[in-house]
Amino acid sequence: MAGSDLRTTIGTLEIAPCVFNASGPLSTRDEELWALAESDAGAVVLKSATLEPRAGNPEPRLWRDSLRGTSLNSNGLCNLGCEGHARQVERLRAEFGKPVIASIAGLSAQDYPAMAERLGRVASAIEVNLSCPNIPGKPQMAFDLEAARSVLKAVRRSTRCDLWVKLPPYQDRAMVEAMAQLLLDVGVQAAVCINSPSGLEIDFETEQTRIHPNGGMGGAGGRDILRIARWNIRQFFLALAGKVDVVGVGGVYSGLDLYGHLLCGAGAVEVGTSYLEEGPKIFGRLKRELHEVLAERGVPGIAAKIGALRVAPVEA
Ligand code: DHB
User: Fold this and answer.
1) C-alpha dihedral over 153, 156, 162, 168, to 10 degrees?
2) Which residues contact 279 (CB under 8 A, 6 or more apart)?
3) Annotated catalytic, 161?
4) Fewer CB within a 10 Å sphere, N or C end of the chain?
């Protein structure tokens, strides 16, 4: 079903349709990235880069259950390194018309501006990942506001490229407001909510953890995290008051799930575990389903629905 307008704007970027992949799953190798570029995804997001290539954590480091629609990962930032990613971005942009977003995850604070400077010369936007849960001994920067402020300021100084900031799931309104204020102060273009909540899976036959690095603990994805994502998207949408865009990620399997993230305030939506499950053809399906959701409601496009969640007044 064609017709409704699925175009969106995040920062300075026009993206159509408003759905594409989340950084991480199937977003490292050339074949994966080229398949994304050829798919119906509105953009291509690369796996988070570190300055140097990394092999990542020992296996088994990724577990998923297709029946439950859930995943747990502790990949340990396996990636081709900043220079390798820069070359992929350059080639993708030369070959395809869609935005290409590079993700950066420094092992130290100084790595961030160095990578942003390099990738900012070639990428359409940079996703600054402050929320990788899987590096032992490295707390997530997004939970240390002073560290986050100094990194984001340095990144902002290093490039004029659009900056998206990948945030963890917060569970507290005060923390959301403090982070939102920081994003406004620094002048970034988008908050990406959410990275994986921390989790643990058990194989009850062996009473072992499902993945082995980091004591079996890792980042959870899939249906379980849909509501947590909604809460964060909504909170950041309200706190950022239209001055910084929100990109929603977490638990999206259907056009209706996607529509829910838009209603909460996401201007665009990324998919991780469901894309890992279904591959690049998921973007055509989600696009079709979103067209159907809009047609059923007689809505001509997504623009008027972003953040338009209705909340009934409650008597005091
Ligand atoms: C990894 C996981 C993440 O959630 C992330 O944001 C970055 C890297 C990983 O384990 O590779």
Assistant:
1) -30
2) 26, 35
3) no
4) C
Per residue in 118-141, pLDDT (tens digit) is 999 999 999 999 999 898 888 899
Q: Closest Cα to atom 3, ligand 1: which residue?
A: 132
- Of the candidates 274, 288, 247, the residue with the CA atom closest to the CA atom of residue 43: 247
User: Prior bond to 113 cis, omega within 30?
Assistant: no
In angstroms, what CA-CA distances link 96 with 18, 35, 38, 159? 17, 11, 8, 23
Asked whether 220 and 72 are in contact (CB, 8 A), the reply is: yes
Atom of ligand 1 at shortest range from CA of 74 = 10
Helical segments of 143-281, H only: 145-158, 173-186, 226-240, 255-264, 273-278
Q: How far is the CA of 132 from the centre of ligand 1 (A)?
A: 5
CA–centroid distance, 23 to ligand 1, in Å, is 8
Coil/strand/helix, residue 63: strand
Tens digits of residue pLDDT in 134-178:
988 888 999 999 999 999 999 999 999 999 999 999 999 999 999
| Residue closest to 141 by CA, chosen among 110, 118, 120 | 110
Q: How does pLDDT run across 224-273, given as a tens digit for each residue? A: 999 999 999 999 999 999 999 999 999 999 999 999 999 999 999 999 99
